[in-house]
Every structure is written in C-alpha cells, then in structure tokens.
Amino acid sequence: MDNTKYKLAGIAAIALAVLFPIYWIATFGFIIDNAEIAFRADFLELSGWDILFVAIGALEIYVYFSLSKYFRDQIGGGLIATMLLAMAFFVALFHSTVAVDILLGLSLFPSIAETIIDVTLVAGIVFLLLYCFALIGMCSAMLARFIALPTTLKLFAVGMLIAAVLQLTLVLAVVNIVLFPALMLLLAYHFLTDEHAVEVV
To answer: Which residues span the membrane (predicted)?
Structure first.
C-alpha cells in the first residue's frame, strides 16, 4: 500500500479540521440575526468566503475518496467504499452551489435572481440530507465490521453516525462545527500512523 498517499490524505484531513470550523463559525455568526436575509445576501456577492467554501469541499471529497480507496485496498471494496463515494458525490453537489454565487455576483440573470436563490437553498438542503443518508449507510457498514476495524476507525464510525443524526435534526447540526473537525483529526491520526491494517473476518 502506498503510505505516502494516505499520509497526504491525513494532511488533508487536518487542513479540513482547521478550515471547516473557521468557515461555519463565521457563517453562523453572519446569520444569527436573520438566516434567510443573510443567505440571500451571500448569494449576491463574491468574497473570499466563497473560495474557502470551495476549498473545504475539495478537501472533504479528497478525504472521502482516499478513505474509499483505503477500504478497497484492505477488504476488497464493498458497501463502505461505495457509500464513501456517494458521500463525496453529494458533497460535490452541495459545494457546487457556489456557482450560483458566481452567476449572481456577476449580476447575471437579475430578473430571476430570487427564484434561483430559492431553488439553490432547497437543493442545498436536499444534498445535505442525501449526504446524511449515505453517511448513515457508510457508518452502518463499518459497524457491521466493528470487530475487524482498528480502534481509530471504530471511534470514527460511531462519531460520524452521531454527526449524521445531528445533521438530520438541522437544529442540532451546529454541534458538528466541533464534532466533525474532531473526527477529521481522528481520521488524520489513523492515516498518519502505520496502523493501516484491517483484519478480514
């Protein structure tokens, strides 16, 4: 197995653990007074936060692809790897909504801007929900192999399942601003150490 590849994934997970809370703490700070107005205003302008949003999405996709490859290398694929790819796909769709920021930020389609924003907000929620269902599928598949997994991945699976449930509540999703980075650091530790072996049972 190419340890360098997984060490890069570990570094990406660390970067994600740092950038994720920076973006979302700032975002929730902006919307604390009126979420709908703040989100609509964000769609109408381009800023450095849009670049950070794209960077976070790219890192998350890379981490999930790497973890999917890890499971394929270790146990020949299966539902875990498939669900990780599905997660990466839905993350890509969610973060692709930044394209709307670009279109509206350039003052394109001003006559239907409100409609575009409404559709994008609904689509974003749908993508997040689909991501959560894929995440629950991934965690369930991991827990089915619980005994065979290294301790770090056991903790990761349980933690990500909790994160998925919190995300589905929408209201408690704010807890993931802390929980998700912690889980990324745990995954980074797994990637950066030499304990990569998964016992096939």
So the answer is: 7-26, 46-67, 79-109, 121-144, 156-189
